[in-house]
């Protein structure tokens, strides 16, 4: 296996509890993906084919990858990640081979979820691409999707922030015929996400997560994660002068008093910008 990275199966350990502000999306995915993977007999009994492909559509950093990992984990399914731009970058013929290998492994290890991140980069509209290699990769993906048996117990989840840019043929029945829109979180969503990312963080009593979620309009999950990381770095900066850097460890009494304060978050807010501002402006 020379082509290791994207084909390595790894059981994901993220759960639905690690995803904030996407309650109804999780419900939809459970119905579309988790139920059929866990109880294929339900769908066989009813004589319907569960979906083979689900397209997650939304701006970057909103949790699409994390969501796919969580569904795999909660469904007890193997998780295979294909990174669109990465697979595109490989040598001639190599991309198709890598794609085939992932599908083969996923089929052999079913139940499984194949997650294709940034699918627009491997399956752009064929009329708009110049290269033969790109066209062949789209064709390969279509062939692989069509070749999946309904009872394969394998679901392909793909993510994009440009659904209009992908080849229409991909969205026909039996391929990515379900679509879930994932938006920028609202205040409640941001509050949930903050709760998740500060779970293991000692917070000073003056930290008001509700207020923070109000003042972070336009922040997506990735921004909220960055914000809490920055706030923690602020706390470290604050404590640095108190440290004796000749010592090998930090005295417990110093460590025990260390927490992240409101002003650490205020400082962090100066450095983290909402990455989804453009989308938010359009929606507003
Ligand atoms: P991209 O399209 O850029 O790959 P994405 O939508 O797949 O982005 P993720 O990679 O899942 O986003 O999220 C990046 C990080 O941001 C996550 O590891 C997590 O720390 C945080 N994050 C994003 N969305 C959420 C969310 N809804 N709840 C909790 N954390 C989130």
TrEMBL record:
Residues 50-186 form the AAA+ ATPase domain. Coiled coil: none annotated. Belongs to the AAA ATPase family. This is Transitional endoplasmic reticulum ATPase. It comes from Sphingomonas jejuensis. The lineage of its organism: Bacteria, Pseudomonadati, Pseudomonadota, Alphaproteobacteria, Sphingomonadales. The chain holds residues 189 to 472 of 765 of the full protein.
